[in-house]
């Protein structure tokens, strides 16, 4: 017998018992489909994260308040680990070379009112003049506020595209007044639509000078002594080449200003690269967990195949005896059953790929998560299905091949 | 020329004190073109002898020469090849592949043929030829459940012949059949014999055995007597009696 004849024989046997074959394949189908769907989800998540992070702007350095140190507990007049303050941003901008722009952000959630329209819980993002360039935001109408306006605490506002639409509809918002809490701000510009970036909806926010936000919405208790606290300062450097040196300078400068040692600093400096790496490590861990889960389900599927093949061998003992009597050698019998197990697994693999690809697409369409069908995951799933078939088919096939023809012929 | 020659073969089951000699020193020669019956009560060793002659089993002692080959020391795989190329089995319970058509049942031995590989078409042509020869030209695409017992046994005969074996080994070929179908099968075997086939038939039925040229009577694992069946005169002639030796 050649391989084609063995495959034909296997196919006859599998299609002759459709329901049982389908149930046997179910484990493999689920295993293969879950490999593809899970890899699809994690690859989609990874792609989305990367897209979002790089979408935040390029060559950015993030300086964060280090919450484990500093903070109010470390309050000492005149510095000494009090955390990041607004003035740190200017110190960086003024003293460090290679810095393109510095932005400080201070969010606050307020009620926004225009005429009869009343919106609760709108994010008022206080920032400085470099915000559009650092965050890659485009002004579509009017302008953004200047640093002078920030310094003078001018009551002006720039609207995200969605917010502008909600508040003013098709009306021109420029020059109009919006009431935030009790403060009246004059709209001087609107942003182009930006969408969701890193889970933040830039379109629904209202942008105001950070000084206004400090003064009106988030007054700090000790601002008079300590300066206004900020959670994050974003620095845009001129080019990736100067990134290292700039970080070094920022560290030294802030350590000196805050009067702390670098190894016990009340701030931390990270780059986009660090964030991407952290995210990748997370998705990598997620992915290997999923791979294990999928691997286990493939093994369970394989055991299902072995089980049915063993049942099949004992049910078909008479057939094996007949085949032996007309000249089937042990190898012929072994190949017959091994081929059957492998064909069963491969058909299960094909169905699993179909279910997996379809499932990924449906999942991507109905959920917020992005899914990507990775070609290599199909190959991986398929080859592991074949490997499972060979591995778990071998024992039953070998058992069949070792049957004694006389006993087998006598079997009822 | 002898097709089958057994030299003092024995088949011993078990070991030491509890061993049983199912066959004990059987020497038998069957010539090309002979039609021979092997008879004996149950426990006489006729099944054991049949298994050995059919290369389903090997003798524990002695030699079994099939045509020009000593098959008594062959491996399982080599024996499978001998069964495929040189032996055609006919069983009491037909032993057809249940889900396969008559044609596929007859093609099956050709699929297991080792060296002379034919194409699928050639195999089917050959199988059809043999099915027509046994009178099943209108049952070729039927599965066993759609065939009568006699027809199933004809398929089995066709399967036994398709590889052009050295001899046909029939085990109670009429045992499961009504008398009319049984006679038809016996008539078919006679036709085969007349065309020059060597046939060895195992039976416990002396009426069936009387169809053959010689009957080998087994008792307690030994050849009790060999009777020449004078078909012309209806009288039997004992030509050889094995002497008790142990």
Explain what the structure shows.
The complex is a heterodimer of chains A (412) and B (246). Chain A has 412 residues and is an alpha+beta fold. Among the domains of chain A are: 184 residues, no CATH class; 102 residues, no CATH class. In chain A, strands 2-3-10-5-7-6 form a six-stranded mixed beta barrel. In chain A, strands 8-9 form a two-stranded antiparallel ribbon. In chain A, a hairpin with a 2-residue loop joins strand 2 and strand 3. Chain B is an alpha/beta fold. Chain B has a seven-stranded mixed β-sheet with strand order 6-7-8-3-9-10-11, with helices on both faces. In chain B, helix 4 crosses helix 5 and helix 5 packs parallel to helix 6. Chain B starts with a strand and ends in a 5-residue tail after the last strand. The mean pLDDT of chain B is 90. Chains A and B meet through helix 11, helix 12 and helix 14 of A and helix 2 and helix 3 of B.
How many extended strands of chain B?
11
| Percent of residues in helices of chain B | 25-40%
The structure class of chain A reads alpha+beta
Distance between the termini of chain B: 31 Å
In short:
Chain A is of the alpha+beta class.
Topology of this structure?
The complex is a heterodimer of chains A (412) and B (246).
Chain A: H1 3-15, H2 18-55, E1 60-65, H3 86-95, E2 99-114, E3 117-127, H4 131-134, E4 139-142, H5 147-151, E5 156-159, H6 161-168, E6 177-180, E7 183-191, E8 196-197, E9 200-201, E10 206-209, H7 210-217, H8 223-226, E11 232-237, H9 243-258, E12 267-271, H10 272-315, H11 317-325, H12 330-366, H13 375-401, H14 405-410
Parallel strand pairs in A: 3-10, 5-7
Antiparallel strand pairs in A: 1-11, 1-12, 2-3, 2-6, 2-11, 4-7, 5-10, 6-7, 8-9
Helix pairs in contact in A: 1-12, 2-10, 2-12, 2-13, 3-9, 10-12, 10-13, 12-13
Chain B: E1 2-13, E2 20-31, E3 35-39, H1 46-53, E4 61-66, E5 69-70, H2 76-86, E6 87-90, H3 102-111, H4 120-133, H5 149-161, E7 167-171, H6 179-194, E8 199-203, H7 206-209, E9 214-219, E10 222-230, E11 235-241
Parallel strand pairs in B: 3-8, 3-9, 6-7, 7-8
Antiparallel strand pairs in B: 1-2, 1-4, 4-5, 9-10, 10-11
């Amino acid at each position: 017998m050649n391989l084609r004849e063995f495959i034909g024989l296997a196919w006859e046997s599998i299609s002759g018992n459709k329901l049982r074959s389908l149930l046997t394949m179910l484990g493999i189908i689920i295993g293969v489909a879950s490999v593809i769907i899970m890899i699809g989800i994690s690859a989609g998540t990874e792609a989305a994260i990367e897209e979002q992070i790089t979408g935040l702007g390029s060559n950015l350095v993030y300086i964060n308040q280090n919450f484990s140190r500093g903070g109010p507990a470390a309050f000492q007049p005149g510095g000494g680990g009090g955390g990041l303050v607004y003035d740190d941003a200017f110190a960086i901008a003024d003293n460090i070379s290679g810095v393109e722009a510095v932005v400080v952000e201070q969010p606050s959630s307020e009620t926004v009112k225009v005429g009869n329209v009343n919106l609760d819980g709108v994010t008022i993002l206080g920032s400085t003049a470099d915000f559009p360039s650092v965050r890659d935001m485009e002004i579509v109408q009017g302008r953004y506020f200047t640093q002078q306006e920030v310094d003078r605490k001018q009551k002006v506002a720039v609207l995200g595209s969605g917010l502008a639409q909600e508040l003013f509809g098709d009306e021109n918002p420029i020059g109009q007044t919006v009431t935030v809490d009790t403060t009246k701000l004059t709209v001087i510009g609107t942003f182009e639509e930006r969408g969701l970036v890193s889970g933040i909806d830039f379109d629904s926010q209202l942008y105001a000078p950070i000084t206004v936000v400090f003064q009106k919405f988030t007054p700090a208790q000790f601002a008079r002594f300590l300066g206004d606290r900020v959670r994050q300062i974003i620095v845009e450097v001129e080019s990736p080449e100067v990134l290292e040196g700039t970080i070094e300078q920022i560290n030294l400068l802030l350590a000196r200003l805050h009067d702390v040692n670098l190894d016990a600093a009340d701030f931390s400096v990270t780059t986009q690269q660090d964030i991407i790496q952290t995210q990748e490590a997370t998705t990598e861990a997620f992915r290997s967990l999923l791979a294990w889960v999928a691997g286990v389900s493939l093994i369970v599927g394989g055991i299902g195949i072995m089980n049915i093949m063993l049942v099949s061998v004992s049910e078909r003992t008479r057939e094996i005896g007949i085949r032996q009597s007309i000249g089937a050698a042990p190898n012929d019998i072994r190949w017959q059953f091994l081929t059957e197990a492998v064909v069963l697994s491969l058909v299960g693999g094909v169905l699993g790929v179909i279910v997996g690809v379809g499932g990924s697409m449906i999942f991507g369409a109905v959920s917020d998560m992005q899914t990507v069908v990775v070609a290599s995951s199909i190959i991986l799933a398929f080859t592991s299905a074949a490997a499972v078939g060979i591995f778990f088919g071998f024992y039953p096939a070998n058992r069949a091949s070792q049957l004694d023809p006389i006993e087998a012929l006598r079997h009822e | 020329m002898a097709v089958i020659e057994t030299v003092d073969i024995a088949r011993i089951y078990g070991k030491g004190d509890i061993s049983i000699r199912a066959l004990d020193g059987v020497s038998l020669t069957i010539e090309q073109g002979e039609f021979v019956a092997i008879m004996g009560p149950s426990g006489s060793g006729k099944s054991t002898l049949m298994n050995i002659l059919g290369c389903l089993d090997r003798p524990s002692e002695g030699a079994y020469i099939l045509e020009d080959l000593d098959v008594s020391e062959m491996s399982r795989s080599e024996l499978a090849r001998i069964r495929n190329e040189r032996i055609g089995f006919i069983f009491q319970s037909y032993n057809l592949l249940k889900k396969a058509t008559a044609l596929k049942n007859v093609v099956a031995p050709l699929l297991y043929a080792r060296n002379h590989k034919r194409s699928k078409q050639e195999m089917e042509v050959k199988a059809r030829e043999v099915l027509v020869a046994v009178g099943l030209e209108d049952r070729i695409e039927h599965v066993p459940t759609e065939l009568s017992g006699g027809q199933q046994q004809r398929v089995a005969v066709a399967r036994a012949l398709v590889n052009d074996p050295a001899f046909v080994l029939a085990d109670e070929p009429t045992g499961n059949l009504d008398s009319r179908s049984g006679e038809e099968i016996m008539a078919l075997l006679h036709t085969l014999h007349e065309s020059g086939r060597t046939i060895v038939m195992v039976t416990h039925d002396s009426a069936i055995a009387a169809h053959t040229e010689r009957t080998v009577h087994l008792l307690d694992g030994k050849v009790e007597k060999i009777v020449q069946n004078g078909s012309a005169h209806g009288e039997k002639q004992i030509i050889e009696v094995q002497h008790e030796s142990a």
